[in-house]
């Protein structure tokens, strides 16, 4: 007795879960930062009520809202630049990267072979003493 609307809701919840799962840490930092800003602003408002100094009260609302807006924009900018991979794609990418690393390692190995075939490397002072310094 599964209705179609329940299945639809389940799909929506699953999509939301998949979207939020890799972003949970940043989202928690965003929410906690916003809560800290709201708390500090409420403390400032209670200080204004006690002291009676209302000179910066209007500016405090502008600063609070600007900080929250900056936090939200920076969160979305930073999260849009990240690439979140699904496990099936990441396995294929890892296989390609490992093959590229093997090829790169083989090329380096061949380069070191050519250096070994040259013979012993000598310091500049050894070359000066032998008279084979190329700088002269």
Counted up, domains total 1
- The shape is elongated
**Percent of sequence in beta strands:** under 5%
Number of helices: 5
**Low-pLDDT residue intervals, each spanning 5 or more residues:** none
Distance between the termini: 93 Å
Main sheet, how many strands, which sense, barrel?
none
In angstroms, what is the radius of gyration? Answer: 31 Å
Mean pLDDT: 80
Quantity of strands, as a count: 0
SSE pattern, N- to C-terminal = HHHHH
Helix content: over 70%
Question: Which structural class fits the helix and strand makeup?
Answer: mainly alpha
Task: Report on this structure.
This protein has 136 residues and is mostly helical. It has one domain (4-130). It has helices at residues 4-20, 24-51, 57-81, 87-118, 124-130. The longest helix is centred in the C-terminal third of the chain and has 32 residues, at 87-118. It is elongated and about 90 Å long. The termini are far apart. The mean pLDDT is 80.
